[in-house]
Each structure stands twice: as C-alpha cells, then as structure tokens.
C-alpha cells in the first residue's frame, strides 16, 4: 500500500472510532459530544518535549504529534488558553496519520521574541504573520488550519489571505476576522456587557490588574466562557503556566486595545489589515463549530454564513460545550479536521 493509501486507511479508522459515517454532520448539523462538560480528571495527555523554529520575529516553541510524512495540520490556541486545548484532539489526529503542529502564540509559554526592541504587538495581522512564517519555516505543504478564539481568527486570516498555501479550515465560532473600524461601532448594551474585559484592558487599572492577577483572571474567563465545563485545578494550572511568559500581559493588552483603536499597529502589517478590513470570503473548504454552552461573546452562525463558499459545513456541538471546544469536545473537533480534509479531496 502506498503512502496515500495508508493515510486513507488510518483516517478511515479514526472516522470509525468517532462514530463512522452516521456521525458525519451536514451544513445544518448538530453533533453531540461525549459528556466532556462533566468532571475532567487529572490530565494524562502530554506532548512531551517541545520543538523550536525561528521566524523573522520569534523563536516559536511548538508541539508535534503524528508521522513526519503525514498530511500537516496546524492548530492554533486562543486566550487565555494554550497548546493543551488540543491535548486530546491531537492524539486522535496523529493516530489517523496527520502530522499535527501546535505552536505557542507570541506571549505564551516558551515562545520568545528574538529582539527586545520588537513591539509587543498583539494585532490580528501580527499573529497571522507568525503563523504563515511558521508554515514556511517548517516547510508545511498546504496544511489544514484549525483554531479556537484568537487561534480561530488567525486560521481564518490564513484561509482568506493565503488560500494557495492552506488546504482547509476548521474554525470554532466561525468567521472571526475583525477591523478597527468595526471595533469602533457600538453594540447593543447586552453585547457590550459581554466584552467587559476588553474595556477593562483599555484602562491602566486593567493592565495593572491583569498583571497582578493573571491566573485568577484566566480562571474567571475559563469559567464564564465555558459555564458547564467542570475542569479540575491541574487541568487549569497546566495551561495557566503558559501565561507566565514575560510578554504575555503586554501582548494581551495590546491585542484588545488595538481592536478598539486605542493602540497603534505596525506599518509592516498595514497592507494586510487593509485587505482584512474588506472581510474577504473564505474560498477553501471549511467547517465551523459552535458549542451549545459558549458563554463568551461570539457571532451567530447566520451572521457569517455568506463569508463561506459552498464547500462549507457548520456544526453545533451539544452536551454543554463551551468556548474552549477543542478541549471540551476533542472528538467533535478531530472529526471536523478529518472531514475538512475529505472535503478538500485529493488536491
């Protein structure tokens, strides 16, 4: 059996393990996860030793799983999470023959800036540039990109700006590309309230408060964003350690202030931001996911449906699944990656 046949066989095994063809969703589908919203025991998943790669700005630490010759999958975490959002999905994908790459974003974990002089910039284009440079530095050939929260936004940006370099997209909470102009538009009061932390970070009190209480702040976000996910303390602390990065507070504050137009970006990203401000469509195969108990601010699926071409599916994942969907429902997330790959065919 050739390499392609072996990969297909492994992916077929994963589909069988995840419920087979009967579990595959349609564009209006609902997927029920196993009861991940219940008590989560002390985690046993581990990525082992991290690898490193340099881009023009960063020394990026990343985890890798699966065969070196497998079809590449780039998974991007969000805030205030880390690579362990994929601790249980990655082994499923590795067993199916995918090569899974999971980097720590700038300002998280062991990832470091190469220069002290670099602006600790959290704008969306900077994060996307990190990701595309990582793809190029590792020589990844048209990876499937997937993400949640900040990582979903970055994955969407890669899909719209670099469609020839990305095979397919899996995005939790859909189309998350933003712009400073859009961020300047007031929302309805209830929607504004859900963004309380963004406005808190706009103040000096907020910056100081986050620096002083980073872990407690993150724990609060975890609880409110996933109100039915009863994670245990070791699970939280495993990820909270990534927030001790010396640049984490600066990157976080800049990210949210940039969205409101309260912080400047960098000139090198201006052309990219101009393109993103037109909200270009996703033209590669894509699957979007949403948890039925997502307590974080997020758009309705109907709001972004027009941003995707016909090679598209949206899935509601039930079972009390919140914002950190890949960690709360790893089977549903892994299935979406496999299906996005199948939607892309043999291209």
From TrEMBL:
Pfam families: Abhydrolase_1. It comes from the Bacteria. SUPFAM superfamilies: alpha/beta-Hydrolases (SSF53474). One of its GO terms (biological process) is acylglycerol catabolic process. The keyword Hydrolase applies. Keywords: Hydrolase. PROSITE patterns: PROKAR_LIPOPROTEIN, TAT. GO terms for cellular component: membrane. Residues 72-203 form the AB hydrolase-1 domain. One of its GO terms (molecular function) is monoacylglycerol lipase activity. This is Alpha/beta hydrolase.
